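Q: I have 301 residues here and want to know how they pack in 3D. Can you give me a structure?
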Amino acid sequence: MDETTRKEIQRTAERTLRDAGLTEPPLSVERLLEHVNLYRDYYDLSDPGFLDRAKHKLTIHGRRLVEIVNKVRLRAVLLFDENRICIDNDLPRIKRPWASCHETGHRILPWHKPFFYADTAETLDPAYQAALEEEANYAAARLLFLGDRFARDARDVQPTVAGVKALAKRYATSLTTTLRRYVEQGPDIAMAMLVSTPAWQARPADQEHRWRYFVQSARFQRLFPGLSADALRQLVDGEARQQRGGTVAEFGFGLIDARGDRHEFHAWTFHNQHYLLTLAVEEERIAERRIVITSSRVSMA
């Protein structure tokens, strides 16, 4: 997503929130949907009966619902011409606000509207579809976390799992969604988030690796451009103890940055009964002693 598009989405989301009078967490999804004239219903989106009744009029991104339902596990559908969002009954309650905000993102971004009515060479391009989904996700984050409000609140919270849980409670969002947003928008320190499948569980069929998401703060990316998700995942697997849920590991480790300096990290791993959620936060920077030659002097740094 280019910066021009990103800023336009920010402006659109902020205007929507302001006009709806939504400034304090948690976001009232009901008020948001009312403001943009959308209704929300719940269905079994995999029910053949539902598909049979709807297949002649329901389209998603220019394609009939019945044509794609067997290829992907749909969680929410925006029926643009009916002003309606259909949410999968099986979607956990904590995830429904995100799904609603994602579909609202499609609704409020004016250049998305044609995408819901007809197939064109552009809309059939998988890369174009992926770009629109990325834009809707970005709009959803701006809506659900009230624009820049979350970033301000995140900087006042200690960078620990307990701090992120407090934010999740305040914003009524899932721990996974909140953790990702915290790493991306929180304090300007080196942090990383990893969502991975526990070593004692089979890898899901729709997951290419044993990790699902690897998110890094801007500072982390600058310091450790070569660190792979698998390297962190292997470290987590070596520390995590098998249990049904809750905190399964808390440990420290060191990383050497691109300049050769060592950084100490503290990590927490939480099992949400599906995935391991790991937050790694820089504790201190330990500069290695290096010889620096300046003119004819030799000094220690």
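Q: Anything worth noting?
A: The chain has two domains: 3-144, 149-286. The longest helix spans residues 126-144.
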